Amino acid sequence: MLTHANISSAHITPPTDIRTKPSANPKDTTMTRTTMTGTTMTRTTMTRTGFLLSRVLLRFDHSSDAEDLVGELSAAAISPDGSLWVGADELLSVERLSPVGHNIFGEHTTFALKNYLDLFNDEDEIDIEGMAYDSGYLWVTGSHSSKRKKPKGKTTSEDLERLARVAFDDNRYLLGRIPEHGGALLASYQDTQGDQLTAASLQKTERGNVLIDALREDRHLGPFIDFPIPSKDNGFDIEGMAVKEGRVFLGFRGPVLRGYAVIVEIEPELSDTGVLTLKDIGDDAPYRKHFVKLDGFGVRELCFHGDDLLILAGPTLDHDGAQRLFRLHDALDLDENSVADDDNDGLEYLFDLPFVSGADKAEGLEIYPVLDDPNAVLILHDAPHPDRRRGQYELFADVYRLP
């Protein structure tokens, strides 16, 4: 095995050789600009900030794990009973928060994933980076990435050694589903239609799982697995998940290829008790690839809004930068590999999130109707700004209106 308050903004001075014109949509405050550099013409869209509808308070239990959890939320999903499910980078569990008041979630309950899914071991972090609810199942995925050690600033020789070291955590190769009913996770249960729902995860292999084995042969993604290039180095790194009608869309923080982020679509199916395999769904492969031009950013989270796929985008490398929301229209109509550049291909820029230096890294994304507005999205943050926290075990999440 492979072993919001105090928001700051920056003023950007445009290039000297620039021509601007108003958007054709009078309600759109953006402007389209054309920049000439030698013989190259680049068209971009100036940004707008999303409209904040409300905030939601998350209350976690008073425990050492919960204190860490509050600072590193990385995924979210909401089940039909209204439960908010969240995951974090370094834990081996998922957490349920129940609605306990207007825009307040509490009654924190922890569900250890080893009770439902066959983990590789009981020590390695899963690095949960995606969650979704679909048809009675809570889906969860690890990042499937390797990681580079950080310098600690003790001695130069030790720091150089750490920077050269790439590590693997086997549990990061987890991708599975668990039956959810009434705010509880179950190993198995029979629904009202008489269907048996069973917890299962992707089949393990010597190299990770069947998805990794398939993508190793891919001409675009294979080199990033074989090298391997770590996460946050534009390496192979899953950081988003959306599921609908059994179709699983996985968003990649990296690699970003010539400015195009990657979304891989799969259709897992039960092959044995507790084991999922992959259907062949296109080009004699068990996956489809959808390349999306997100202004050079990678995917940080996904979720469905009807048949459209919402894409939260952010920097691929380990630095501050814009965080931007896009919509891929009619994503469920995609039945082959695809490339989306702009509105003509169904890819629409929605808005930017406020920029906060060194904090508020948006990672969790879920539809959350509020104030009689069904078109709203809940966004959770890793490394939340201190103003977002209320004590050690509570923090605020944001709800934005969707255009």
Task: Looking at this protein, list some descriptive labels.
403 residues, Neuraminidase, 8-stranded mixed β-sheet, 7-stranded mixed β-sheet, 4 helices, 33 strands, globular, disordered N terminus
Protein model, in words:
The protein has helices at residues 64-70, 156-163, 210-215, 222-226; strands spanning 18-22, 31-37, 40-45, 52-59, 73-78, 84-88, 93-101, 104-112, 128-134, 137-142, 147-148, 166-167, 175-181, 184-185, 188-190, 196-198, 200-202, 204-205, 208-209, 237-244, 247-254, 260-266, 268-272, 275-278, 288-293, 298-305, 308-314, 324-328, 338-340, 347-352, 361-367, 376-382, 394-401. It is mainly β and 403 residues long. It has one domain (55-401): Neuraminidase (6 Propeller), CATH 2.120.10. The termini are far apart. 39% of the residues are buried.
Number of helices: 4
The domain tally reads 1
From the alpha carbons, calculate the radius of gyration and give it in angstroms: 21 Å
Task: Report the uncertain regions.
Answer: 1-43
